[in-house]
Design brief:
By secondary structure, the chain is of the alpha/beta class. The chain is built from ten helices and eleven strands. It has a six-stranded mixed β-sheet. Strands 7-6-8-5-9 form a five-stranded mixed β-sheet. Helix 1 links the parallel strand 1 and strand 2.
């Protein structure tokens, strides 16, 4: 049986943590997963790193197809997700139901965590500039390059965490407050593609097929991602 090398952005960490063991048991294959923010993953690939399968943002996979690193015919849309807010389990949940309420929640919070290199963190940094509250929010920022930012809230190092919803839902000890208001929401589409240089293309295809079954789709939904096969 094959060992599949998988490159994945952090938004899929929670759902794959549940689904990959199921796939390994049913297929006999093993999966070696490398997680990183999409920006960091693309930098690694540009330096020559490769795998069998990648699950990244749609624009990243499009760039890899353009560069000949991912086989065009293997592209498949997996799921989509938005950005949300989380607090420590048991803590009061702020009102973020409208744009004004969201801004007020950020201003009232004692500390706010978001990533430096993750897609949601990059977007949030630009968003607070656009909303005119950057100075106030940055003064109480708790930052790290990537990873599950909700872990900082679970460790009581920050009051609020802002990140893609499935990444928040993957962290024990915190509670999901809700998505960003629709007017400022950013939806990210997760797309899979098999590397042109894949050592195990057939096994990678089997994994891709498994991730798009109806049973897997239910796990995606439970983990904060909206499955799609568009």
């Amino acid at each position: 049986m094959a060992t599949i090398q998988l490159f994945v952005s952090n938004s899929s960490r929670g759902v794959l943590g549940e689904l990959i063991p199921q796939f390994e048991r049913s297929s006999g294959h093993s999966v070696s997963i490398s997680y990183d923010p999409a920006k960091v993953m693309m930098e690694r690939i540009a330096r020559g790193e490769t795998a069998d399968l990648a699950i990244l943002g749609g624009s990243a996979i499009a760039d890899l197809i353009r560069d000949g690193k991912v086989a065009a015919g293997s592209k498949r849309t997996i799921a989509r997700c938005g950005i949300g807010v989380a607090v420590l389990a048991g803590a009061a949940k702020p009102d973020i139901s409208s744009l004004d309420a969201f801004k007020n929640a950020l201003i009232a919070a004692r500390s706010i965590a978001w990533t430096q290199e993750g897609a949601s963190g990059i977007y949030f940094s630009k968003l607070i500039e656009r909303l005119g509250i950057a100075d106030a929010v940055k003064a109480k920022a708790v930052r790290q390059p990537g990873g599950l930012i909700g872990e900082l809230v679970a460790a009581r190092k920050a009051e609020l965490a802002v990140q893609q919803i499935p990444e928040l839902m993957a962290v024990p000890g915190i509670e999901f407050v809700g998505p960003l208001p629709e007017a400022i929401q950013l939806t990210t589409v997760s797309v899979a593609g098999i590397f042109a240089s894949a050592r195990e293309p057939a096994a990678a295809q089997a994994l891709l097929d498994f991730l798009t079954t109806p049973a897997s789709s239910q796990v995606f939904k439970a983990r904060g991602l909206e499955p799609t096969t568009a």
